[in-house]
Amino acid sequence: MADGIRIPDELKPVDGRFGSGPSKVRPEGAEALAAVSRTYLGTSHRQRTVKDQVARLRRGVAEFFSAPDGYEVILSNGGTSAFWDTAAFGLVRDKAQFAEFGEFGAKFAKAVADAPFLAEPTVHRAPGGQAAFLRAEAGVDVYASVHNETSTGVAVPVRRVAGADPGALLLTDATSGGGSLDVDVSETDVYYLAPQKALGSDGGIWLALMSPAAIERAFEVKGTGRYIPQFLDLVTAIEQSRLEQTYNTPALATVFLAAEQLDWMNAQGGLAWAAKRSAESAAALYGWADRSDYATPFVTDPALRSNAVATIDFADGVDAAALAKVLRANDIVDTEPYRKLGRNQLRIALYPTVDPSDVEALTTCIDYVVPRL
């Protein structure tokens, strides 16, 4: 029986967590949180103890991404899903354009399409495993794309739209790409991400590097008198972030763990180090799949293969769901594919928290299990 397959301990990764979000939290981060549990957890988010950690997190993000002059690190509650609605209310004047090539880009496009006070957006779509790209269009005041599509493992460069109307903003969803993929933040106006991916933390907040133009747009849109729910008010998020706090109570553990992770990554060498480490993991996994008789990278174009999240298809004779079940029984967890994609595949996180040697061990374990299924 497949359920009875036991992988020898000497083949296993040191840490078997490969989830694409929530992702692996470094034990050292959890220990640091435990060390401040009596002075930090369960305390008021309006007091210095918590504000210092919010400030530490904002500084860490700015340093890690080499924030250009004038860019500010803004945060608020609710995760990326809340940011999509926040952007629909607070950044789009009238018309937006989207590059949609997976589940997460589609969700933002739907949020804007459903807004009764905005024009119907233009959406450029590509099937899973491929990429769609933005194109200059008269009248568009917000362009939006995804740096890394978490559901499919496709990554595209972050570049401004040539020929766009003056003043048009570019919003880049870095939910899972931010921290694993190289980026020049000056190429976008809003680079927003979540802490439960490369930042090795829990969920519950969103973070964004915002250009002066994006901040000005937020105040401009609010000044039109448009109804904006308080929880989704971007101006409120900006003003509260400048005070090193959030409008309502944040998840304190999330803030601390993300700040701890950024301090660790910055100490290792920042984004250059993190991107190189993720690239090493990607090379190990894709290289194995390219050599395999029964596994192939889902993304056929090597230039689009993500170094943050990898998707690997399996031949018809290999049941990837059964494989993932055996891996989980052996403490190698969260390798299951994105459910709505519906493919016979595994999805593997390659974030900087994941040691490349553990990725190599994972491939060894797969090769051990497949003939025994």
Tell me what you see in this structure.
By secondary structure, the protein is an alpha/beta fold. The chain has two domains: 9-25 and 270-372, Aspartate Aminotransferase, domain 1, CATH 3.90.1150; 41-267, Aspartate Aminotransferase, domain 2, CATH 3.40.640. Helices cover 36% and strands 14% of the residues. It has helices spanning 27-35, 48-64, 79-90, 103-114, 212-223, 234-242, 252-268, 270-291, 320-329, 356-369; strands at residues 72-77, 96-100, 122-125, 142-146, 148-149, 154-155, 169-173, 190-193, 205-210, 295-297, 309-314, 345-349. Helix 1 (27-35) crosses helix 7 (252-268), helix 7 (252-268) crosses helix 8 (270-291) and helix 8 runs parallel beside helix 10. It is globular. 49% of the residues are buried. The model has no long low-confidence stretch (mean pLDDT 97).
